[in-house]
Amino acid sequence: MQTGKIIQSLSGFYDVLTTDQKIIRTRARGNFRKQKIKPVVGDWVDFEDDYLRKIHPRTNELVRPLIANVDQALVVISSTQPEFSFNLLDRFLVVLEAQKVRPLICVSKTDLLSTTAAENLKIELQDYQKWGYLVFSTSEIRKDHASFQKRLTGRETVLAGQTGAGKSTLLNYLCPELNLETAEISTSLNRGKHTTRKVTLYPYAGGLIADTPGFSSLAWQQVDSVKLPQFFPEFVTYGKDCKYRSCLHLNEPGCAVKEAVAQEQIKARRYQNYCQFQAELKEERPIYQKKSTKRG
Ligand SMILES: Nc1nc2c(ncn2[C@@H]2O[C@H](COP(=O)(O)OP(=O)(O)OP(=O)(O)O)[C@@H](O)[C@H]2O)c(=O)[nH]1
Ligand SMILES: [Zn+2]
């Protein structure tokens, strides 16, 4: 019996990267279908005679893209074309944190900004660094490849980000031998075309990295309105002083998070996004309506 990780899945075949760095094409046995388990990219598996025998328990499983055991995600967010959006960035951070995937932030296309605009964006993003997120720009990565690589060694990293953000371009730079297809931004819609379809893990810097199909919208998969405050690190810090332990920082009295927003210790924009996400969760899942409007 051999062990390895599925790095690609194509019409019923699973390519497994073994611990000694060989790639073996395998197939799933019928018993997986009976048990309603589908092997996915990222799965640790045991196999024998080119047949998968066992799928190891998953640490996590993303639905869109379908991939398992992800350690971290590199959120590629464009500074322009498409326009930079803090709301979109916060959405990615929340959806990833909710799935126990550590987000890293990578801002693309800063070369298209004026020096002043690039500097201003960098300053705005310092707040994210302050609360524990690593922030890179594609220009910085090109200047100092080594310190970026260090963050990927030994880890399974997915690239996430809206279509046209520059994920394939970045991956092509990191792994030039891949020669992935990238698309020109379609000017009429000012949106990238969907060029990345299947999910594949590529060996990179002693780890694995996956380009993923562009997210055009982010579903609130696995996000619970009661848990939402946990995915805003600064809310966790200030929330310890809220009068009520279950404070959702909405209408409760004695809310230390709202106080921190008033004192500008928490960015008003982050709090506005939080309130918007709570409202969206309420609409999507009426089951949480009661809890999220509860006072005190
Ligand atoms: N100037 C500049 N252009 C970039 C940069 N990154 C990406 N682009 C351009 O942006 C367009 C879209 O890039 P892609 O890499 O295809 O975007 P993607 O995120 O992989 O898109 P999907 O595959 O649709 O998810 C291409 O025309 C790239 O050349 C960058 O850092 N600077
Ligand atoms: Zn509160």
TrEMBL record:
GTP binds at S108, K109, T110, D111, G161, Q162, T163, G164, A165, G166, K167, S168, T169. The keyword GTP-binding applies. It is an enzyme of class 3 (hydrolase). GO terms for biological process: ribosomal small subunit biogenesis. CDD domains: S1_YloQ_GTPase, YjeQ_EngC. Binds 1 zinc ion per subunit. Residues 68-216 form the EngC GTPase domain. GO terms for cellular component: cytoplasm. Zn(2+) binds at C242, C247, H249, C255. It is found in: Cytoplasm. One of several proteins that assist in the late maturation steps of the functional core of the 30S ribosomal subunit. Helps release RbfA from mature subunits. May play a role in the assembly of ribosomal proteins into the subunit. Circularly permuted GTPase that catalyzes slow GTP hydrolysis, GTPase activity is stimulated by the 30S ribosomal subunit. This is Small ribosomal subunit biogenesis GTPase RsgA. It comes from Bombilactobacillus apium.
